[in-house]
Write a structure and sequence with these properties.
The chain contains 2 helices and 24 strands. It is an alpha+beta fold. It has a 24-stranded antiparallel sheet that branches.
């Protein structure tokens, strides 16, 4: 009778643990989805709940069938640490070090042969990841050093940088902000090694939307960007003190705009590919003289010069 009670108790504990583990996994998935789809305070709350669910998962009892030796080999994979065979004996759970035949190495928590919880994985290629895992995939907070030398620290989803974080490139460039599938996407700041800096909106790795660009030559631009270049209505301040305000296309003044030189001269009128071009231009010099007429390729064409009245 005592033996039967012991067996029944063990079976009940296994069932309770399995149900608890299933609930934890479901909660983790729900809060992960909420964190990816929400913004602001709701996203912060979802991320806190997600971390709580992951911690619960790491503490959860995954009932094994039998404890294994401190070091053993299953197929071509070597296990070192505290592991136990799961029910059925085909998979293992526990914590320690796992070494694959191809040279990959994992140190951390394993659940049913899947990396789950906190752990560090080193690929044979040299790529390394340390952080949160969910069912064998980097999900949550972590740090990835890629084989090409780039390093990302922040949020991961489906094994890729996705969310808020910082990417330090092997080239010396750096990006801080939102990323999607490893590329700048959303709001962020990119700093080039040469001194150029853009703070604003990104889409699929390109500056796209409103923002501020400081060029390596000292010029600065504020306004919309497209494909990484000024495009739309914006303002460029040159290191010389000159200022242009107006339309841009592919990085150059185009359309209507006003250029004010540091010495006080000013032109207002049409532009094309960075040059004064078109009818209706007005050039005013600091001495009061002005030219009214059309320009072609930055040169005066048809028009008239009006002298300022002088005492």
């Amino acid at each position: 009778m005592a033996a039967e009670l012991k067996v029944a108790t063990a079976q009940s504990q296994r069932k309770d643990a399995a149900e608890l583990n299933e609930l934890i996994d479901e909660a983790t998935a729900v809060w992960q989805q909420a964190a990816n789809s929400c913004d602001g305070l709701e996203r912060e709350r979802a991320e806190r709940k997600l971390q709580d669910a992951r911690k619960a998962g790491a503490r959860a009892v995954r009932t094994p069938a039998a404890a294994m030796p401190a070091e053993f080999v299953a197929g071509s994979t070597r296990f070192i640490g505290r592991f136990a065979a799961d029910a059925g004996g085909a998979t293992y759970s526990g914590s320690g070090k796992v070494v694959w035949a191809n040279g990959d190495v994992y140190e951390g928590t394993l659940v049913n042969n899947l990396r789950h919880g906190r752990g560090r994985f080193t690929w044979a290629s040299g790529q390394r990841y340390e952080g949160d895992w969910v069912q064998g995939v980097p999900v949550g907070q972590g740090r990835m050093q890629f084989a090409n030398g780039n390093v990302f620290e922040g949020t991961f989803q489906d094994g890729l940088p996705n969310g808020a974080g910082r990417m330090q490139y092997a080239s010396g460039d750096a990006y801080s902000g939102e990323v999607q599938r490893g590329a700048p996407h959303g709001r962020g700041t990119f700093e080039w090694l040469g001194g150029q800096r853009f703070e604003g909106e990104w889409r699929s790795g390109e500056a796209q939307g409103s923002g501020k660009m400081r060029f390596s030559n000292g010029n600065s631009y504020e306004g919309p960007m497209q494909d990484g270049k000024p495009h739309g209505s914006g303002r460029m301040v040159f290191i010389s003190g000159d200022v242009y305000t107006g339309g841009f296309v592919a990085g150059f003044p185009e359309g209507g705009g006003t250029f004010v030189w540091a010495n006080g001269d000013q032109y207002t009128g049409p532009w094309k590919a960075g040059q004064k071009d078109g009818p209706g231009g007005l050039m005013t010099w600091k001495n009061g003289d002005r030219w009214e007429g059309s320009y072609r390729s930055d040169a005066q064409a048809e028009g008239k010069l009006i002298r300022a009245k002088r005492p």
